[in-house]
Amino acid sequence: MEHPKKYFSKKLELKNGKTLVIEGPVQPGHIAGLKFHEGLVAFREPEEQKEALIGIARLEEGRIIIARDEDTIVGYVTFHYPDPLERWAEEKMENLLELGAIEVAPPYRGQSVGKEMLRLAMMDEAMENYIIITTEYYWHWDLKGTGLDVWEYRKVMEKMMNAGGLVWFATDDPEICSHPANCLMVRIGKNVDRESIEKFDRLRFRNRYMY
Question: For residue 117, which phi and psi values (nearest 5 degrees)?
Fold first, then answer.
């Protein structure tokens, strides 16, 4: 399966008068030439995360959308194939992508940066060829930094994912089922065939009685 990528960009005006550039999918060299905000620490140390983004951008199917304040990356979204060790990779579906990470630096939160990155990602018609999933686990959420409780944060995450067309889907995945705030969110592109949707349903449910 070919993975065409069409670049888009737009501007987002912030409350403080600054203007962010939302753009992508971006090339590895573009990421390498930018600074990485020190507040982007949800998954790794900033420099390590920057290298991880460069690695994903090099993948044939990899897509990185960024929010940029002049020459500094202040937010990003990643799309790539699921980890080979996860259930979502078991059917080896070429048209299933995982939204692996989304992060916005603390000073830029609450201004729709995440929503705008997701909206821009879905502007590419090629995304209609994919089932896109994201697995949300409460232990990845910045509850302390935001002051939100787990259910308030879940609501924020759902609204942000909804902006990209992802909605809640049921599953019997043990990790997701381990806490009621965890969830699977999915966007099924309009060009995805019935056979692929059936394969995905088999991934969602191992126990037939839960269909």
Answer: -65, -40
Separation of alpha carbons 138 and 150, rounded Å: 7
| For the chain, domain boundaries | 8-210
Hey, what amino acid is at 191? N
Task: Say what the pTM is.
Answer: 0.94
What pLDDT is recorded for position 140?
86
Tell me which residue has tokens 């049921």: 170
- Alpha carbon of 29 to those of 25, 26, 58, 61: distances in Å? 12, 8, 10, 17
Handedness of CA 110, 97, 65, 143 (dihedral sign): positive
For residues 86 and 46, the answer to whether their CB atoms sit within 8 Å is no
Q: Report mean pLDDT in 10-residue bins for the chain, 211 residues.
A: 94 95 98 97 92 98 98 98 95 96 94 97 98 94 88 94 97 95 97 97 79 46
CB 2 within 8 A of CB 126: no
CA distances from 119 to 10, 47, 48, 157, 170 (A): 10, 26, 26, 14, 23
Is 8-210 in CATH node 3.40.630.30?
yes
With contact defined as beta carbons under 8 Å apart, do 131 and 96 qualify?
A: yes
3-state secondary structure of 129: helix
Instruction: Report the pLDDT value the prediction gives residue 209, as an integer from 0 to 100.
Output: 54
